[in-house]
Write a structure and sequence with these properties.
Helix content of chain A: 55-70%
Oligomer: heterodimer
Structural class of chain A: mainly alpha
Number of strands of chain A: 0
Strand content of chain A: under 5%
Helix content of chain B: 25-40%
Largest interface: A-B, 30 and 37 residues
Order of helices and strands of chain A: HHHHHHHHHHH
CATH architecture of the domain at 5-76 and 186-217 in chain B: 3-Layer(aba) Sandwich
Distance between the termini of chain B: 20 Å
Amino acid sequence: MRSYQKNWLEFVFFKAFAELKAESIKTYLSFLWWILDPLLTFLIFYTVFGIFLQHDSQNFIPFLLIGITIWNGFANTIYHGADSLIQNHAIMQYVYLPKWVFPTVIVLKNILKFFVTFILLIIIMIILGFEPQKSISTIFVLIFLYLFLIYSSTLFVSSIIPFFPDLKFLVNHFIHLLFFLSAVFYSPDMLSPIQQRILFLNPMAVLIDAFRDVIIYNRDPNWNWILLVFIESKAIFFLGVSILYRWDRIYPKIIIQ
Amino acid sequence: MKPIIEIRNASVRYRTRLSWIKKEEIWALRDISLSIHRGESLGIIGKNGSGKSTLLRLLAGIISPDFGEVIIKDIRVGLLALQIGFIPNLSGHDNIFLSGMLLGMDKKKIQKRYKDIVDFSELGDRIYDPVRTYSAGMRARLGFSIAIQLETDVLLIDEVFAVGDIHFRKKATEALKTKLFNKEVTSVIVSHHRNILNNLCDRIIVLENGKISKKFNL
């Protein structure tokens, strides 16, 4: 059963830009928040770990900047994408559209924000004297993988939330837990080899570590772990997509309380 | 002639979770069969909660039946939805594109129709103001002006007649009639008002508790 084949990507792009525009109108500083938001997070962490706990690594500032930029892009997208189907429940009642459209809009929006902060990050790194241009192709591979992970996770989470709205709370705690398991403010080298192995089952820990390897230490990331991230992302992607397709015409029937 | 949409023994149920264990089931449609042929105009009448809107959603391919089947031929079906997807913080201009694309038009087509839409809505330069600054009537006018541009093989309409002031309502009804009397267009119209349906439709079905209780040919 189908009705009205259509290229929904055009709509996805238009809606993503429209929502960004609408958001920016709501605040006085509008687009500046894209940069201020991660900057404030950085300052908080720097105050706690850099000043109070006297983290004595010479590269602590770039180390923390990379961790927070990469982490924020991931966490914000999932956080906002989790209830994208619920947010758009009214629209679903009146038009048929494939349900991947809603989480994709959120992902696109947040990816744009991420790119702005990431470019800023690279500029800061160059000012601080790092030369990531040597391994620019590796950075592109990592970014591609990172975006793929964000997209698949958001698709998956958004596909199950409408059935179990209580999960939204669990998702927030899970993101919190994942934050501590992603080595944002510490180095995986501090852990025992076994602990490291467990830590690197978390794709975000692998990616943050890999970005640091490339940008700060100018060395190749561990490609075995990178491959694992790709396999994990692909599995989550297919899981999310199949749930969304399987229940495509069921989502509008779910009564939102 | 073969029908373009066919519903066979379809039942639709909504589930509400009252608590962790308790669930409530509401059968919105029970064992409905219905065929729609090219060019005809079908009216659906019934009380609140009789399943009218659910039937329309089933015809639009928005939901799937829990039992039975719905067969939609290779045609475009569109529900005439007003103000769908509006973002209040954005201008009427931006919302024309948002809403139009949601209804199934592509950007190019909307650009082509843009002037007609703005003219029909009678919003003038206010089209560049955020929709949140509009009165309810203005918003309804804009919504209708966009939706009326919808060109699908089957047009589904759920009570959209009463928008705007008397002058605009008249204009809107006229535009809708022109659309519906076009022999190429198949339509299904839901309403509380029997006389409106008598005017527009070839046949009418009455829904009661999710079942078809009466059929009339006009």
